[in-house]
Structure formats: structure tokens, C-alpha cells
Amino acid sequence: MRPRRFRAMGPLTGRIRVPGDKSISHRSIMLGALALGETRVSGLLEGEDVLSTAGAMRAMGASVVREDNGDWVIHGVGVGGLLQPQAALDMGNSGTSTRLLMGLVASHAITATFVGDASLSKRPMGRVIEPLSLMGAEFTPSPGANGSQTLPLMMRGAAPAVPITYRLPVASAQVKSAVLLAGLNTPGITTVIEPIPTRDHSERMLKGFGARLEVEREADGTRIIRLHGEAELTGRRITVPGDPSSAAFFVVAALIVPGSDLVIENVGLNPTRAALFDVLRAMGGHIEELDRREVGGEPVADLHVRHSALTGIAVDPAVVPSMVDEFPILFVAAALAKGRTVTTGLEELRVKESDRLAVMHAALELAGARVTETEDGLMIDGTGGEPLPGTPEGAAIATHLDHRIAMSLAVAGLASKGGVEVDDTRPIATSFPVFESLLDGLASGTARA
Ligand SMILES: O=C(O)C1=C[C@@H](OP(=O)(O)O)[C@@H](O)[C@H](O)C1
Ligand SMILES: C=C(OP(=O)(O)O)C(=O)O
């Protein structure tokens, strides 16, 4: 464990840049590993989750190499060409690696065992086991596994796999992507019906690599995604935009720390990801988009954020999929806002790296905030801008191997009287390895002015 007390510091000013998007980084490596020829990725997130994906793709035959200039170069095996891994695939803390790679393995004639850390080993895999079994894959729980739907799991892919039409029972980009990736090496057309739109990086990137994929939108917003199987993918150049889910921590920090005036450069603003910024604006946050442009086929802007007086709101549950990872940090903003913030429709937060409703409830209360937990959300009565008391001496926030809990409470510490003690900062490296150095740079005034 690596504990740390995060304390109030001066205003956040200057310009920073956050690392590459985690979702796009995973997919760059996976699709590059299935393509023919070279894929060159700049701005790849070098977080532990993405490195788990890189390790697995190497174990299945792809060459994945980091060059001295920071670019990552991938030489793929071609769709259908994945090799039998010689050892269990260690997915660490990463749900995205696990579920998407299960999709890839499902339509190859190979057997793979997936293992993960204590957090990942509790997360539900039934949601991918169901559609991938319909496609022909077979799953065997390892002896001693806790039930049949959690890691460790052994799976045997099917070749040829069976194309399916699958309606997503849960709004999940990971499940959608698992089925689409399995469809790549499946004869015929694999169809995913998505009643509630989720992040669309897989669709954008599959097309970019040359797959035939069509998206139809129905009047009620349902998306029907059809992927033509036995695809041929061709290597390409990818520039990964900055991760909005990482930028979120510094956006909220600048909003709640008096005097702050911060520019966060190169933030991905794909509409299926960016709802947090709209919610914070509706709460009174000054967040301005500068120089809107396209990077790697994704909308990007620099965000100019200034300290703001926030007001609590009721968050529309319709936006949940487009900010699903941002609720822990939104809860921190709510704890500093004037009045009550009400969130609903957040059942999925209970099956992330931790139960993010229960853990944020306990964490914010320990830091002195007023929080009520419901079945599907939190209600938070904010301080109206007054700093939180902070965690008492000798008590620490339990982060439960969840990077977003650790970073959210670190930000809460910046707006506290006595500081917030986080029990373990190590999980931060899964998605945002330079989080603490960026924060410390801002505190010491070394961020670029
Ligand atoms: O597809 C992806 O890259 C992701 C999808 C989301 O998960 P779900 O699909 O389980 O909601 C998100 O929470 C995760 O951080 C990344
Ligand atoms: C839920 C997350 O990631 P994953 O599902 O890939 O572990 C996250 O990064 O917040």
C-alpha cells in the first residue's frame, strides 16, 4: 500500500496535458494486432491497463513495440491469425482488456485462460459469456473460482464462429465491443442492437482499419450496428487524443479550488464521452472549449477552466452512459456545490473496479461531506464552496483497488481544511500514471504558464 494525504494547495494555474484516452489506446493495440502491416500509434496511454492489453496481444503473436520517440508500433497477425497463448493472460485490473479480448479469442481456434487482480476477479463476466457462447465459444470456470461468471476463466474459441444478432441487455460499450470483435473472424454479418448508445470508439476505429460496418439509427435512438465478418484490417497511423476521463479530475479540481484558472490541452470530446462537462456547466462551472478540432477522427478541444461557484442539480439519468466513469469525481464537485445534487440510474457503478456508490458514499462521509445512498445513486448536500473538513487523523479513505476513487478523493483533499488521506495511491497507475506528478507540478508552479 502507498498511502498519501492530499492537502489544500494554491490555485491551479497554467497549462497541462493529460495522457491518451484509455479506451482508444486499448483498441489501437487490439486492432493493430489483428491488422496486416504496420500500425503506428502516437499518444498511447502507458497505463497498466493498456500494458495488460499489449502483453496479451504479444502472447497471441503480435509484435507490440515502444519506440524511443514514444510511438508504439504494432505488427499484426491478420484476422484469424491469433496464436495460442502459452500462459494465462493476466488482465490485472482491467475490465476493458478482459471483455474485449474474450471477444477476440471467441472466434479463433485457440484456448485462453484469463486471470486478474482481486478487484477484477469480482466483476461480472456473464454479460460477455452469454453472447460469446451463442457464437460458439466455450467457457470453463477454473477450480476454486467464485461461481462460474467471474475470473479466472478458461475459454475455447470457435472457428468458424456463428454470427448472431444480439440486443444488449445492459448499456455497455465493453459488451458491444466484445461481440463486434468476435464478429471480425466470423462468416456473415454480426449485428449488435444498442437501445441506449454507449461510447462508439470501436465502431469508429473498426471502420478506420477497413472493416465494413454500418450503423442504423432508429427514431427512438436505438442503434443497429452490422459488422461484415471475415474482415481484412490494414495497419494505419493513429493519434490518440487526451482522455476526457482523466481530464475530468483536473477540471473539477480547478472548479473547486479558489483562484484557479487552468487550460487542459487536447481533451477528447467525443459526444459519447463528454457529458460530465455539460453537467458541470449546468451546475455553474466555467468550462470553455478553445480551438475545437479533430485528432485521429475524434473531436478534441483545449478546456479553459476557472474556479466557479457550483450549484447542485438533478442529473438526468439519460446522460449516464456518456459519463459512466466520471461519477466519482462529479460527486466531489457536488460535495462543494451549494444545495443538493441528486443522481439516479447508476446501478452499473456497483460493478466497476469497486462498488463506486458504496465506496464514494463512505469516502465522502469520512471526508466530512453529507451523502445519502439510494439503490441507484447518491444524493449529496454540498458545502456551498466551504472546504470539507477532511479525513480525521489516523483514518484513511479505503480505495478498494479503484483508481478513480483514489484520484477523486485526492481532488477532494485540495478543497479540504485538514487534507484527505487515501489508503493506497498505487491503483492510479492503471489509467493515469502521471496524475500525481501533474498535481505536484501545479502545486509547485512548474506547470507551463
Ligand atoms: O469500452 C470501454 O473502453 C469502456 C467502457 C465502459 O465500461 P462498460 O462498457 O462496462 O460500461 C467504461 O466504464 C470503461 O472504463 C471503458
Ligand atoms: C471501469 C473502468 O475501467 P475497466 O472497466 O476497463 O476496468 C474505469 O476505467 O473506470
TrEMBL record:
PROSITE patterns: EPSP_SYNTHASE_1, EPSP_SYNTHASE_2
Pfam hit, one: EPSP_synthase
Residues the entry annotates as binding 3-phosphoshikimate: 22-23, 27, 172, 174, 325, 352
Domain Enolpyruvate transferase residues, every copy: 8-437
The entry's keywords: Amino-acid biosynthesis, Aromatic amino acid biosynthesis, Cytoplasm, Transferase
Catalyzed chemical reaction(s): 3-phosphoshikimate + phosphoenolpyruvate = 5-O-(1-carboxyvinyl)-3-phosphoshikimate + phosphate
Biological or metabolic pathway of the protein: Metabolic intermediate biosynthesis; chorismate biosynthesis; chorismate from D-erythrose 4-phosphate and phosphoenolpyruvate: step 6/7
Residues at which phosphoenolpyruvate binds: 22, 95, 123, 174, 356, 404
Task of the protein: Catalyzes the transfer of the enolpyruvyl moiety of phosphoenolpyruvate (PEP) to the 5-hydroxyl of shikimate-3-phosphate (S3P) to produce enolpyruvyl shikimate-3-phosphate and inorganic phosphate.
Family from the record: Belongs to the EPSP synthase family.
PANTHER family in the cross-refs: AROM/DEHYDROQUINATE SYNTHASE, PENTAFUNCTIONAL AROM POLYPEPTIDE
Name of the protein: 3-phosphoshikimate 1-carboxyvinyltransferase
Organism: Novosphingobium bradum
Gene: aroA
